[in-house]
């Protein structure tokens, strides 16, 4: 990663500290971080490797439809869904990354973006009157992804599938945070 890119991310992080804690309904910063995270995932691994197609078929779980989960929820509950999903993604990318072929600095950049999103959202889910609730569909989906990684021995193909799933969830989260921003 080049110096100007790192400097730009850190500048954004420093200048934006506290923006969401002042007003949790302003999620434009989450949208910026999410787009950066999606781009980081894309750069990290490039196109999906064709040799991983058979491994993909061994992942026996339905895709998580976050749009459906938030359909009738209030803003605070939607924020909690976003937070819980990011927390699970962060947990997965803290697992055994030994077999991945991705550049370590790119993985670390992606993890920093996730951590920053989580820390900003933590202020939102701690608002007075809000309680942390766990959504079982999200929990079960990510538990299956973790189990898949373990069963596949954390292979490079298993990680490529996780990267694809992660990108899809981040795209859904971007849509959800944009909806929340428009409501407020």
Give the strand tally: 0
Counting helices, strands and paired strands, the structural category is mainly alpha
Number of helices: 9
Average predicted confidence as pLDDT: 81
Which key phrases capture this entry?
184 residues, mainly alpha, 71% helix
Write the layout of secondary structure elements.
Blueprint: H1 3-16, H2 19-22, H3 28-45, H4 53-57, H5 66-70, H6 75-92, H7 104-125, H8 136-151, H9 156-183
Helix pairs in contact: 3-7, 3-9, 6-7, 6-8, 6-9
Describe the structure.
The protein has 184 residues and is mainly α. The protein is globular and about 45 Å long. The chain is 71% helix and 0% strand. It has nine helices and no strands. The longest helix is centred in the last third of the chain and has 28 residues, at 156-183. It has helices spanning 3-16, 19-22, 28-45, 53-57, 66-70, 75-92, 104-125, 136-151, 156-183.
């Amino acid at each position: 990663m080049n110096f100007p890119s790192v400097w730009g991310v850190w500048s954004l992080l420093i200048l934006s500290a506290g923006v969401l804690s002042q007003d949790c309904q302003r999620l434009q910063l989450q949208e910026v971080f999410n787009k950066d995270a999606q781009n980081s995932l894309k750069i990290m691994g490039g196109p999906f490797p064709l040799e991983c197609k058979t491994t993909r078929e061994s992942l026996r779980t339905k895709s998580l439809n976050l749009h459906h989960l938030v359909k009738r929820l209030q803003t605070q509950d939607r924020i909690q869904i976003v937070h819980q999903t990011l927390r699970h993604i962060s947990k997965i990318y803290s697992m055994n990354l030994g077999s991945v072929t991705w550049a370590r600095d790119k993985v670390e950049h992606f993890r920093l973006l996730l951590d920053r999103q989580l820390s900003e959202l933590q202020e939102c889910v701690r608002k007075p009157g809000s309680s942390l609730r766990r959504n079982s569909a999200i929990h079960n989906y990510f538990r299956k992804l973790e189990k898949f990684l373990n069963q596949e021995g954390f292979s490079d193909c298993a990680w490529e599938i996780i990267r694809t799933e992660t990108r899809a969830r981040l795209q859904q989260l971007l849509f959800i945070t944009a909806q929340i921003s428009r409501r407020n």
